[in-house]
Amino acid sequence: MVPTSFYIFLAALLFTIGAVAVLVRRNTLIIYMAVELMLNSANLAFVAFARQFGDISGQLFVFFVITIAAAEVAVGLALIVTIFHTKHSVDIDAMHELKG
Amino acid sequence: MTVPVTWQDVAALLPEFFLVVWASALLLLDVFWIREKRTTAWLSALGFVVALVLAVGQMGRAPLLAFRGMVIADAFSVFLVALFALSGLVGILLAQDYLARNGIERGEFYVLLMFSVVGMMLMARVADLVMIFLALELFSLPLYVMTGFARPRADSEEAALKYFLLGAFASGFMAFGIALVYGATSTTSLPHMVDVIQAGEADLALLTAGAALVLTGLGFKIATVPFHMWTPDVYHGAPSPVSGFMAATAKMAGFAALLRLFVLVFPVVADLTPVLWALAALSMVLGNVAAIAQRNIKRLLAYSSIAHAGYMLSAAVAFADPHLGPQAVAAILFYLVAYVLATFGAWGVVILLERRIGQEGLLLEDYAGLSRQYPGLAAAMAVFMLSFIGVPPTLGFFGKFYLFRVVLDAGFVGLALIGVLTSLVSAYYYLRVVMLMYMKPGEPIVRREPRVQATVLAAAALTLFLGLTAASSLYAWATEAILRFG
Amino acid sequence: MVAYWIFALVSLLMVLAALVAVTNRNLVRATMGLVLVLFGNAVLFVLLEAYFLAVAQVIIYIGAIAILIVFAIMLTRHVGDAWGPAFHRAWAWAVVVAGGLAVGLLFWIAHWPAADGKAKSPVDPQYTKLLGKALVAPDGYVIPFEVASALLLAALIGAIYVAWGGRRVKGPYPQRSEEKEA
């Protein structure tokens, strides 16, 4: 059996890669993918803990994370595609309508 | 063995059930039968009235964990659910004329608003980490769409995209944080978690890390510094009624979950107290200082909402103290009522003065001379500004009084001092609005929209009247809204 | 022992793929990196004896979400080519912040004694049945399940409105406001 801590290490690493990418990348699609990476790392951690505790509530949580990811992807990609029609760009730095 | 659902379980969630059914029915009615969008608006307003009645009917009952401990109906949640139902109603009153005059009135708006309110209500009810995550998304996703409702206007779309990306980022933090909390306590049920923590079986290091990540996720929702970057742009770009609705309710929902988690479950992670301290102090300072430089009223209110999140968070710093926890909850609930009233009112005034969507009538100069032509409206706006500053006898004064008292009792003198000083700073930009309305000549153009005007005047009357006569009884009521698990 | 090797291989691949997903300037390649990570996650789910979730992961994440992302890339096509600097101006600052986050997380987990890897009980052979029952049982997850369905409905309405709703609105945006004004 691979120890749970290995899985959590991996999950933390993936989470960090995702979080860094959200902060540094400019393409909104990549930013969104990085968010998916973060959610996935959470799923991995949930399943690893669930196995350690012999408890299914962690696995059930993953179901809901997957559901939410699906709901988010629908709204998010609709927004990205729509803004592309308006601005012909999906670059976050092209978003400069709102300045104070 | 499965236990059948009892009437008690259903009764605990009655306002939410009703709203979901009503919203779904309205969705169909809107597509197939309703010709006038106005009818949809009235029907959804009616739905909120019924939900409010149902929520009030829950008051005074014993706390009840329903559906195997997924949700709870305690005094705290009932207080907030009633407030959310009322906010939904106000949200529709503010939005309807605005949407119609800008040609974006669609039945979906009201349905989305209802779903969003259901999510917020559930945020107040959570007794399981699954519910926190789902409720957070249920209220956020409709808000992203409502922010972009003025599509294909570029500013509205851009605000929606920014809000969405930052919101999704925040839910990533929430998910991973919850995973770590689950790993630390081996359960997602909050009452069980309390037992595990009290038995000393929880892994504190992991719990602290998880709590910090959850705090980050919620910090985005309540817009505290340094998770506030989206706020000015989103409030600026969103249609004004949506900004007002968000400013009032999303913050309430975030605080509902934050208080339940930190006061009830996480007092053991007292290590996070300095973190909360810093978040509160930074929000008060940066929110108020940045607001000074704003010329656009929407951005000004956005920064001011960041500052108010800081004030409320400063009372939450006392979460780890078992004696002060309930007091902090009462003070924050009280402040939320004051903040929500003034926020809805001020945004109502913004809606009345906004001429073309997102373009004219949004600068501070456009408020010049308001008192001559519309003395009632100007007086109402002045009341909201004074309440935001915390000038007696408005409700905002009592709100700050109770907040800072908790902060002082907890021994955070420095934080209370920062709070008072930044309130003084905030007087500068709030009073500038008042001064423009009363001292400068001008020809402001105001819309005659009776529903919005009535809402604004009612909010002003309540802010003043409750402050003058009923502040202490309202506080007593908030004190009874104790967080419990059964 | 085999499990260790699989874990080592898959995790290495996942980290590399994740790096590709977030650094590659070609969007399609980045998506393929993401798909690889998602697939690696499914493999690890199998290793963790969460068989049903592994299947769900492949079907929903790779089958639906990744495909939707590919669609979005195609719909915003000429952005797929490299264009302008790939990184935000403040990237160095963000790396410092995130590096701190990484060190903190890893430190916490490294000092975590409980992870000895001993599963408390073996996985129930009927676990898929248990999952299914728990999802819809009134004393289980029926409320989260219903909330999730409301969430999906709201997302559906929202996505339709955003992607389609206003197409009928033609011309300069605020049309009706002009008439009502004055």
Please give a structural write-up:
The complex is a heterotrimer of chains A (100), B (486) and C (182). By secondary structure, chain A is mostly helical. Chain A has a single domain, classed as Helix Hairpins (Orthogonal Bundle). Chain A is built from 3 helices and no strands. In chain A, helix 1 runs antiparallel to helix 2 and helix 2 runs antiparallel to helix 3. The longest helix of chain A has 31 residues. In chain C, helix 1 runs antiparallel to helix 2 and helix 2 packs antiparallel against helix 3. The longest helix of chain C has 25 residues. Classes of the chains: A mainly alpha (100), B mainly alpha (486), C mainly alpha (182). Chains in contact: A-B, A-C, B-C. Chains A and C meet through helix 1, helix 2 and helix 3 of A and helix 1, helix 2, helix 3, helix 4 and helix 5 of C.
Nutshell version of this structure?
The complex is a heterotrimer of chains A (100), B (486) and C (182). Chain A has 100 residues and is mainly alpha-helical. Chain A has helices at 4-24, 28-53, 57-87.
Helix content of chain B: over 70%
* β-strand number of chain B: 2
Number of separate domains of chain B: 1
Average predicted confidence as pLDDT of chain C: 77
What is the subunit arrangement here? heterotrimer
Describe the SSE topology:
The complex is a heterotrimer of chains A (100), B (486) and C (182).
Chain A: H1 4-24, H2 28-53, H3 57-87
Chain B: H1 7-12, H2 14-32, H3 37-57, E1 64-66, E2 71-73, H4 75-101, H5 107-125, H6 129-147, H7 154-185, H8 190-198, H9 204-222, H10 230-237, H11 240-265, H12 273-292, H13 297-316, H14 324-353, H15 370-373, H16 375-389, H17 395-409, H18 413-439, H19 450-480
Antiparallel strand pairs in B: 1-2
Chain C: H1 2-23, H2 27-47, H3 51-75, H4 91-110, H5 127-136, H6 142-163, H7 176-180
Helix pairs in contact in C: 1-2, 2-3
Features:
heterotrimer; B: 486 residues; mainly alpha; two-stranded antiparallel ribbon; 19 helices; globular; C: mainly alpha; Four Helix Bundle (Hemerythrin (Met), subunit A)
